[in-house]
Amino acid sequence: MLIEEVMTTxxxxxxxxxxxxxxxxxxxxxxxxxxxVLKERTKKIVGFVSLEDLIQHPDEDQLALIMDRNVITxxxxxxxxxxxxxxxxNDVRQISVVEDDTFVxxxxxxxxxxxxxxxxxxxxxCEKYMEPHILAVWQETPIPLAAQIMxxxxxxxxxVLNDExxxxxxxxxxxxxxASEIINVLQKTDIQQESEGExxxxxxxxxxxxxxxRLKLPDKxxxxxxxxxxxxxxxxxxxxxCARKMKKHGIEQLPVIDAQxxxxxxxxxxxxxxxxxxx
Length: 279
Fold this sequence. Notes:
Layout: H1 3-6, E1 14-16, H2 20-30, E2 34-39, E3 45-50, H3 51-56, E4 73-74, H4 80-90, E5 94-99, E6 102-108, H5 109-116, E7 136-138, H6 143-153, E8 157-161, E9 167-172, H7 173-179, E10 181-184, H8 188-194, E11 207-210, E12 213-216, H9 239-249, E13 253-257, E14 263-268, H10 269-277
């Protein structure tokens, strides 16, 4: 299967020169966590800017000084396994597709799963690739505290448990961004004092500092933000079946349960990438 068969061409981009505020506004408007950056008035890709980049450079306003300039490219006629290998080796979630030095699209991890693996017949069981642990939070946990727990645990998602310990939902970092509210901060020096020594901080005031903008999280229990319909799999679910579930439900992770319905691990989209590389 070729890159041109799975790549995305209808893309939201941003240009340099540009400002961090513009990038943040575009991300929120289109519900994106990363944007390709093009040189102004050209079709040449010069980098990517992500929400994480904005968080890690709180005092920089110019997009050119924030963005990641590591652009990995591939041709439309290349095989998708080549893209999977590049993503796996470079720990990235997208590869730029270029033709005659012109940016023509992206092949993302989601593209490989939705338009690639889901159409294949990969019979490897997910138990070979899943993470054998899973983060859980109580349904009454305040949203800001849940976000902080995930940050300290270095997890992108957590299952939500009710009072009886049953899984009743799932929440991920994208949910926090969607639920947040941008608040402009006028006194930048106060921000620097409050978050000194930290790349980014979820404070007890439910605030994430991103330069001169704050993303304020609602002071509500996580059950009001979670996705209540949890799509699960078992150890015997195949890689292709996982991909098809992710495609059907538009999700990036699948909790793995045992015969009693207890969560015993999780399969994320990048685990499927590893399976494709080794196929």
